[in-house]
């Protein structure tokens, strides 16, 4: 029998998870940006801005954005590295990547784009100065394999940035639960015509490793100097690690 994993609160065969995740993102791609602003009250822009501005990424750097979707971080990295740098927008999902690519093109930004599975990255060893993954790791079947791949493609001294939902500060959790399990699916239905995908979002957040567990996973994948910064009471955490 196939090994089991989680798809939200459901237990599924490992071989089924990627297809189920793909269904979610094919379904929400066109409404993804508007839903992101609506659901987070615009806060996702602050979380991403913090990631970019505290990164230390400089002009001329090579940056890989994994699970980059509609391109928020890739756009930010491209502005920081300038013309002498190189930024790749990658995602496993063609619908999300198409929206991202078109959006960047509409803004006059031509970046290399690649349909890529984080668990099998099509890039050489020791190539990038920085790798980012925002709200993507949670959806991956083999997070340990993906983190190892991220480590492999980084140059020694290169940095990984994992921006992801995390374990919320306990006093906030009743409000957060109400919002996630009652309000989000309704918003998803009204705006994106899809309650189930937003129910999955809420469930997948609860199933994702907490701050300390993810830190340990990054250490196990070969990163050093791993640390994290909580934002909005732990709704989101930014983990950083360095490849030695
Ligand atoms: C919530 S979206 C995040 C998009 C973008 N990074 C952002 O912050 O707005 C999650 C993305 O992860 C992608 N994803 C899921 N599994 C993946 C995998 N194994 N490899 C690469 N991307 C993956 C999905 O296709 C989706 O576009």
TrEMBL record:
Residues that bind S-adenosyl-L-methionine: 70, 91, 117-118
What Pfam families does the annotation carry? Ubie_methyltran
**Catalytic activity as recorded in UniProt:** a 2-demethylmenaquinol + S-adenosyl-L-methionine = a menaquinol + S-adenosyl-L-homocysteine + H(+); a 2-methoxy-6-(all-trans-polyprenyl)benzene-1,4-diol + S-adenosyl-L-methionine = a 5-methoxy-2-methyl-3-(all-trans-polyprenyl)benzene-1,4-diol + S-adenosyl-L-homocysteine + H(+)
State its Enzyme Commission number(s): 2.1.1.163, 2.1.1.201
Q: Which UniProt keywords apply?
A: Menaquinone biosynthesis, Methyltransferase, S-adenosyl-L-methionine, Transferase, Ubiquinone biosynthesis
Q: Which domain of life is it from?
A: Bacteria
Q: Does the keyword Metal-binding apply?
A: no
Q: Which InterPro entries match?
A: SAM-dependent_MTases_sf, UbiE/COQ5_MeTrFase, UbiE/COQ5_MeTrFase_CS
GO biological process terms, alphabetically, are: aerobic respiration; menaquinone biosynthetic process; methylation
| Gene3D superfamilies, A to Z | Vaccinia Virus protein VP39
**What's a Gene Ontology MF term here?**
2-methoxy-6-polyprenyl-1,4-benzoquinol methyltransferase activity
Question: What's its top-level EC category?
Answer: transferase
Signal peptide (from-to) = none
Q: List the pathway annotation.
A: Cofactor biosynthesis; ubiquinone biosynthesis; Quinol/quinone metabolism; menaquinone biosynthesis; menaquinol from 1,4-dihydroxy-2-naphthoate: step 2/2
Q: What does this protein do?
A: Methyltransferase required for the conversion of demethylmenaquinol (DMKH2) to menaquinol (MKH2) and the conversion of 2-polyprenyl-6-methoxy-1,4-benzoquinol (DDMQH2) to 2-polyprenyl-3-methyl-6-methoxy-1,4-benzoquinol (DMQH2).
The entry's family comment says: Belongs to the class I-like SAM-binding methyltransferase superfamily. MenG/UbiE family.
Tell me the protein's name.
Answer: Ubiquinone/menaquinone biosynthesis C-methyltransferase UbiE
Species this chain originates from: Vogesella indigofera
Q: What gene is behind this protein?
A: ubiE
